[in-house]
Design brief:
Blueprint lengths: L19 E5 L1 H4 L5 E7 L17 E7 L1 E6 L4 E6 L3 E4 L5 E4 L6 E7 L1
Antiparallel strand pairs: 1-2, 2-8, 3-6, 3-8, 4-5, 4-7
């Protein structure tokens, strides 16, 4: 087949509902080289601090709803993303997403 369709309803969230939700769609889509994740963060919630030095994966974060801060730990810098904003991150960049706003944020994360 030339395509696969998937939804967040097809996979379990790996984040407790009280913090939002995080759905990895790579396997459900049958993707071999591209990771696609949907992330929802409740106000005050944050993602895991991490980098991808071990696998060389760069990531793109695209905000669908709300606003988030992406803390770049090694640089002691914060990039604020609002609806329709995107950022690309090198594999070596240590990052952590925070929802410091008053509404739920929703992002699409892609990595390859």
């Amino acid at each position: 087949m030339g395509y696969e369709k998937a939804s967040t309803e097809d996979v379990d969230s790996v984040v407790p509902e009280e913090y939002g939700g995080m759905w990895f769609l790579r396997d459900a889509l049958g993707a071999e080289r591209l990771g696609v994740t949907v992330l929802e963060l409740e106000p005050g919630a944050k993602g895991k601090e991490h980098d991808h030095t071990h696998d060389g994966q760069e990531e793109v974060y695209f905000v669908v709803k709300g606003e988030v801060d992406v803390d770049l730990t090694d640089r002691d810098e914060t990039v604020t993303l609002r609806k329709d904003d995107a950022v690309r991150l090198d594999a070596e960049e240590t990052r952590q997403i925070h929802n410091r706003g008053d509404e739920k944020a929703k992002l699409v994360l892609a990595g390859a």
